[in-house]
Write a structure and sequence with these properties.
The chain has 298 residues and is of the alpha/beta class. The chain folds into two domains: 2-156, Rossmann fold, CATH 3.40.50.720; 159-296, N-(1-d-carboxylethyl)-l-norvaline Dehydrogenase, domain 2, CATH 1.10.1040. 50% of the residues lie in helices and 12% in strands. It contains 14 helices and seven strands. The protein has helices spanning 11-20, 43-47, 62-69, 94-101, 117-121, 135-141, 158-180, 185-205, 210-214, 216-227, 232-243, 251-263, 271-280, 286-296, and strands at 2-7, 24-29, 52-55, 78-81, 108-112, 126-131, 150-155. A seven-stranded mixed beta sheet has the order 2-1-3-4-5-6-7, with helices on both faces. Helix 7 runs parallel beside helix 10 (216-227), helix 7 packs across helix 12 (251-263) and helix 13 (271-280) packs antiparallel against helix 14. The radius of gyration is 19 Å and the shape is globular. The chain starts with a strand and ends with a helix. The model has no long low-confidence stretch (mean pLDDT 94).
């Protein structure tokens, strides 16, 4: 059986371990050792002989994790990141962080798509999207999901998959705010269309592939994240609307300012994103901002 190691035993790491546990020999490491069943392993022990490593940590620690695991992996070990955010200081997508921090020519990919942890644990139908320029990464991962509830799709553009994962979280927070404000499906439907339009604009500005943005890695993941009561980003948005402040940490909230820096002079074409920045980072009242967004949009 393929030897697979998970770095990070949060919800998504645990859910993926559940999915592939029948087809692979799985191990895990987490900085919180209480999350590891049985005898805790050092990172070196957890990575010994690993053929595939899933990095299931927040985007802001991926660089440090990559540097550390590089000490213990071999040149054929496949590295897959599930982090869905931008690196705040460098504004880099996760594929760029991996390429920069992993050993040269290390096979890697980014994993996106609508893969809510709660639904993976319940063995509900799901589609994961693997972005990897090296086909060997998909060839190594696909057997792990055979016979499971997850169908794995592959695209060669890892950067757009990583970008889509960032954007869907941001706009899911926005739909959560609308939910918390009591908007109905008419208003939320309009907002969802606005979100998809802006995701496409940002993709064009940053050289992304709009076909991927429109597919499972972009639109599919956005809809799942924006609509599911199990979504952290949606729930964060709801709490912002109800409590008037951001009381939870989410990748979506963290990513707003970096994306605005990336689009720079074109941000005037992104009124929904600017509205979220006013609420999250400038601490304006959600109700007032969303009413202005609705009135000002043509």
């Amino acid at each position: 059986m393929t030897k697979v190691t998970f770095i990070g035993r949060g919800e998504i790491g645990s859910a993926l371990m559940h999915v592939i546990g029948k087809c692979a020999e799985v191990r895990a490491w987490d900085k919180d050792q209480s999350k590891i069943a049985g005898k805790p392993l050092t990172m070196e022990e957890a990575l010994k002989g690993a053929e595939v490593v899933f990095i299931c940590v927040p985007s802001w620690v991926v660089r440090d994790v990559c540097k550390e695991i590089s000490l213990f992996i071999n040149k054929k070990t496949v590295i897959v990141s599930l982090a869905k955010g931008l690196e705040e200081k460098t504004l880099k997508t996760m594929d760029a962080v991996l390429e920069e921090c992993l050993p040269q020519n290390q096979p890697f990919g980014v994993f996106g798509g609508p893969i809510l942890a709660e639904e993976l644990m319940a063995d509900l139908p799901s589609v994961g999207v693997l972005g990897a320029k090296d086909q060997i990464v998909f060839s190594d991962l696909q057997p792990l999901f055979q016979g499971s509830s997850v169908r794995l799709e592959s695209v060669s553009d890892a950067r757009t998959v990583a970008l889509a994962s960032v954007l869907k979280n941001i706009y899911a927070v926005g739909l959560g705010i609308a939910e918390g404000l009591g908007w109905g499906w008419n208003g939320k439907g309009w907002l969802a269309a606005k979100a998809m339009d802006e995701m496409n604009i940002i993709a064009r500005l940053l050289g992304g592939d709009e076909r991927i943005i429109a597919g499972a890695a972009g639109g599919g993941d956005f809809l799942a994240t924006a609509m599911s009561p199990d979504s952290r980003n949606r729930e964060t948005g709801r709490e912002i609307a109800i409590a008037g402040e951001c009381v939870k940490t989410s990748e979506g909230c963290h990513s707003i300012a970096p994306v605005l820096q990336l689009v720079n002079d074109s941000k005037q074409h992104l009124p929904f994103l600017l509205s979220l920045d006013r609420i999250i980072n400038q601490h304006e009242k959600p109700k007032k901002v969303f009413e202005e967004l609705l009135r000002s949009s043509s």
